[in-house]
Amino acid sequence: MKKIVLIILVLGCWIGNIYASLMFYVFRSFYNSYLNLFGWISIVFIIIAIILLLLDLVFKFIRFNTKEKKMILFSVLINIVLFLISVIYYFHETAE
Question: What is the mean pLDDT of the chain?
Answer without folding.
Answer: 70
